[in-house]
Amino acid sequence: MNDEVNFCIEEAKERMEKTISHLEGELRVIRAGKANPSMLSGIMVDYYGTMTPLKQVSNVGTLDARTINIQPWEKAMIEPIEKAILAANLGFNPQNNGETIRIAVPHLTEERRKQLVRQVKAEGENARVSIRNARRDANEEFKKLQKDGLAEDLAKNAEAEIQKITDNYNKKIDELLAIKEEEILTV
User: Fold this and answer.
1) How far is CA 39 from CA 11, 92, 117, in A?
2) Among the CATH numbers 3.40.50.10230, 3.30.1360.40, 3.40.50.150, 3.40.50.10240, which is that of 37-104?
3) pTM value > 0.70
4) What's the confidence (pLDDT) of residue 1?
5) For the chain, which residues make up each domain, given as ranges?
6) Which burial class, exposed, middle or buried, applies to 29 when counting CB atoms under 10 A from its CB (0-12, 13-18, 19+)?
7) Which residues contact 32 (CB under 8 A, 6 or more apart)?
8) Which residue in 70, 90, 130, 139 has the most C-beta neighbors within 10 A?
9) Fold exhibited by the domain 3-29+109-185
10) What is the pLDDT of residues 27-65, one digit of tens each?
């Protein structure tokens, strides 16, 4: 195939791969009833006037399947970290003992599980839309190349190739969603 066609295909693959990576990150943040430090990944703490990610001002880990432990590097950061966790509105109630902050991850109710599954499906649909957009952009580029002199059969082969790639990435999305839904619905 033509170098420009190969470039378009690689660019589309790269965009689709970024979409999968983004989806994996979004799914990691959705809690499934088990304590996971990534649940707190979006929390920003006021560190002497600068908004800083939680993981840059403390060690975040799990003690067991239901407890997240936060060990601030400075004792003065305990109160700002507690405020940031409460402000993030994640449904957690942090408790400190003067040196560390512990968060007990509550059991999920059936209603909350169903709500989380809907959220997972919405994230999956957003990823599918992004994959389709990458496919559409590549197909438009193939049409432009065809107008500029690319053989019609090469353009059709390129479109078929992009469709195969799109189908593979949609399968990956389905697999990721199925794993996360099972994780959420397992009591």
Assistant:
1) 31, 10, 16
2) 3.30.1360.40
3) yes
4) 56
5) 3-29+109-185, 37-104
6) middle
7) 108, 116, 180, 183, 184, 186
8) 70
9) Topoisomerase I; Chain A, domain 4 (1.10.132)
10) 887 766 677 787 787 888 988 888 888 888 888 888 887
